[in-house]
Amino acid sequence: MPPHEGLVHPKEYDWRDSNVELVNSELDHKVKYQSAATEPAWNNGVIGKEPGLYIWRIENFEVVPWPKEKYGSFHEGDSYIVLKTVAVKRQDGDNGTEETDKEDKLVHDIYFWLGAHTSQDEAGTAAYKTVELDEFLHGAATQHRELQSSPSDAFAALFPRLKILRGGVESGFTHVDVNEEAAHVDSLLRIFKHPRAAAGRDGVLIHEVEPTWQSLDEDDVFVLDKGDKIFVWQGKNCSPMEKMKAATVVNDLTLAKHVDVEVLSQEESRSRVVVDYLGGSDVDLLTTTFKAQRPVSASTEREVKKLFRLSDAEGDLSFDLVKEGNAVGKGDLDPKDVFILDAGKEIFVWEGNGASRTERKMWLKVLQRYVARQTDAAGLAVSKVAQGNEGKAFWSAIEA
Is 343:328 a contact under the CB 8 Å cutoff? Predict the structure, then answer.
């Protein structure tokens, strides 16, 4: 049989395989921790010991530190791991000795971010290494799956300027060109408000789009960088917040080079120059409506918050609705089981300290089946939290 026959490429990447007999056993944790202990990215004397924001990109199956000056910029052809560690005051019930009770507790959130055009091998490596990093942190981290098409509020809040760029690094199986080091190529940045951002919140995103006039949208602001000059094109329906974000983007671009900047409103006749540069010399500005699909999904929020329990307390594994609506609260959680919280625009898996081995092993399979039945949930962020290490995002979701 030829070596390629019999191979099937899965349509969707399952970010954490749970259909293995020894998953979450003591041996499983020991093996994973030993692997994590040999990963140079985690063993720098800082990870797990000091608060901060840390980012790595997956390059040829390796975890490579992302330069700090590029924090907030992600390529749509890549996968990344982001670790956010914060120090919080210990609460009643936290484990600790008399000497450590007064010390701050480190809370970790690990996000593995998958670009829209990342390869299967990069996505798989990011997911595996996320689990490994969690093991290195002794299972105390909250794990988040982040998709480029639907970033969670918690992820977006990490970066004052979240920018999505085209291209990506060469991977083990595929190759996407990166133009960062090449001669200048015209770039077009789209600046728009996150479709799910709360009112008044700075939920403005920046995405690099195809530099053609068809990418323009009258509801947003665009920055065209031609190398020797920068144009800002303000759609006639854009918001003041988008205009302000565009100003910060232009400021960043001009720090490294001194070039002219021209700001144009769509309703000005002079705005014709931007459309012309983007190949629209034949476009009639008076009759053309500029509309382009946004690169971020506006997933509809489930109308009612729901909390489900995964339990084998009665012998057989069951998955039942515990409560729904605003009545869901902290008191509905039981340390002996695993719970799935559908918070509307994000899904959380809460693992109690006393959950059984079967419950810990089967939560992902159950979650996948649940999401498959929700027509608007495929692009939602999914987070797994462990009791005692929940973090702000989980408590905000369950107490909202």
Answer: no
Answer yes or no: do 145 and 234 share one domain. no
The two three-digit tokens of residue 395, written as one number:
């408590």
CA dihedral over 224, 229, 234, 239, signed as positive or negative: positive
CA separation for the pair 183, 168 (Å, rounded): 16
Residues 154 and 207 sit within 8 Å (Cβ to Cβ): no
Q: What percent of the chain has pLDDT over 70?
A: 78
pLDDT at 197: 54
The 10s digit of each residue's pLDDT in 322-367 is: 998 878 888 999 999 999 998 887 889 999 999 998 898 888 888 8
**CA distances in angstroms from 196 to 142, 172, 296, listed in the order given:** 22, 35, 10
Neighbours of 286 (CB within 10 A): 5
Range of the domain at 238: 187-277
Both 127 and 195 in one domain: the answer is no
Residue 365 is which amino acid? K
Domain check: are 317 and 393 in the same one? yes
> Is 284 part of any domain?
no
| Per-residue pLDDT tens digits for 77-107 | 999 999 999 988 766 555 544 444 556 788 8
The verdict on residue 42 lying in a domain is yes
Say yes or no: 329 and 390 in one domain: yes
Q: How confident is the model over 220-240, as a mean pLDDT?
A: 94
The CATH number linked to 398 is 3.40.20.10
The DSSP line for 217-279 is: -TTSEEEEE-SSEEEEEE-TT--HHHHHHHHHHHHHHHHSS--EEEEEETTSGGGHHHHHHTT
pLDDT for 269 beyond 80: yes
